[in-house]
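Supplementary notes (optional reading)

For those who missed the lab, this is the record we used. Protein: S41 family peptidase. Length: 519 residues.
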Amino acid sequence: MKSSKRFIVVVLSVLGLFLACKKDPADPVEPTTTGGIDKSKTYLTNEHENKVRDSIWYYFKVLSLWEKDIPPADLSRIRQAGYIRTEYSQYFETGETVVDYLKGLTRSSETATDYDRYSFLDRAGEVSGEIQNAVSTSFGMQVFYLQTQQSGTNADLYIRMVERNSPAFAAGLQRGDRIVSLNGNTNIDYNSQQSENFRTVNSYLNGGTLTLQIAKVDGSMETKTITSTRYNVDPVMDSRVLHVAGKNVGYLAFSSFVTIENQGAKTAMYNRFEQIFAGFESEGVNELVVDLRYNGGGAVITAEYLADRIAPASVGTNIMYSYAVNDVIKSWGWLNEGEEFGPVRFAKKGNLQLSRVYFLVTSGTASASELLINVLRPHMQVYMIGTNRNTDQGTVAEKTYGKPVGFFGLPIVDDAIELYVSSFKTFNSAGQGDYFAGLTPNANVWEFTSFRNFGQPDESMLAAALNHISTGSFAQTSGRMATSPAGNSFINKEKIRGDLQNNQLKNGMFKLRAIKEVH
């Protein structure tokens, strides 16, 4: 694999050929195709933002998987000085509006799901911080609305997940805690907040300090004040060995694929996983459950590491997965063996000998999580346990998110801004990929039938896996009523708001080896 620095230099050099050349009189004349751009107003007063918008258009045209949907149709036109700004970018106020517009163009020639829903602009350094450097600045918890017997047609706010080392974790907040008030405000129920588009709750969750009154699962009440601070990310929510039906079952739950390697050095995440799998081996684990239910993805290299840990020795050095890229990148020879997007091969690690593996998934399981699942499918029995959800139209058996594409980050204009353009797709050794509609679980259960913490054997999703290991059946107790450890009853109608701030990194599959050095 080439060095990251060379990768960035080559990309910038190749694109520089397009950006630096003056207009060639021999260039063909192409009719302007602006796809409904509003040209009634221009935005040229901020030269820094002008360059941001220009750069976004250039990179999308050259790097996007959907390059053919991005104007101009004649790639050589972007070599002409000022062409992109004159014809396109000056009519957009910000870089973000350019990104949204270009993503929208990819719908034109694709199916209902097979288009760019993923590319984004990172002005805050969240990706490099959380994935590469394993640091975050947040409260470190995810919240959601859940109907209960007590709330009737309304729904209360609950904590769904707490990250280790975070302010929320240090304060003792846990999955299953009900939030009674935020900053003294008790009008945080679903119906009250829906009427104002969840503005108040979002403002609290995006603030610097938060005071929560909590009803614990045992019925006690607590008040906690937490401050959004920088902390070292440990995405492992739980790991343990369970003993079921004469089997030693390893359980691993983690929330993101933090990189195991940064600028050639092994990271704390690598050491954490090494310790966990060494423990599995020493306890003779012969079944494995990997909990990816809230895992939106992360570093590809971490998915590769875990695949090498989980796969049977019979994989040898066979292909783990291969890439697909657009014709521009393909013409650079980067799909060849040993190149930046050459095929990735297995290199079995450790002594676990598993014939099957169970994955716990939801509609939030995305990208690098889906990659890990997909690359193992040709080589062992892979079971997925998903979730059911009640809707006004009835029960929906959910699939995973559906993101078989990924990106590498490129700094644009200055080092503070990185652009992530969906630039590659992945396929396992059997040619399986393109799961834009999501991966389909083998079974779907009600996640909150038993609202327990991660790793508890009677927690709904884990219980289904353990039941299959024991009996060959995923079946769990039927019915839509659930209970907490305190005996509270839940209706399985999860009212999750997508616009609730939940401190979760954007779903992504990041080729971090391509962005280790960006200066």
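If you only remember one thing from this example: The radius of gyration is 24 Å.
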